[in-house]
Amino acid sequence: MLVKTTPEWLALTVEERIEAFRTQVVPAIEGQGARSRFYDTEFYSARVTDVWVWEAADHAAYQRLVDALRETPFWDRWFEVVEILVGVENGYANNYGVDAVASVTA
Predict the structure, then answer these.
(1) Alpha-carbon distance 20 to 33, whole Å?
(2) Hey, how many other C-beta atoms are within 10 angstroms of the C-beta on 12?
(3) Which of 34, 76, 83, 105 minimizes the number of CB atoms within 10 Å of its CB?
(4) CB–CB of 69/29 below 8 Å?
């Protein structure tokens, strides 16, 4: 999920942002069968400020997650959702019954 912060979000202090996430976003996404990782990109890209990688148990869990996020100020108030890219890790390998060709670091 490629997102861009809004002026409203940036007007909050760091403490207010953490509290807003803790009280309004986290409760909405807990129990949806998904987890996330966040990457800051604003120092490399003017188009998006953050990349949120969501891992969901299945497509239904991902759909529940997005629906839950849309009911919070996260969606289009604090962040503009620029683009959603959905993929399946090693999908080609799974489809063809072969080992994934990828580099792994320890």
Answers:
(1) 22
(2) 13
(3) 105
(4) yes
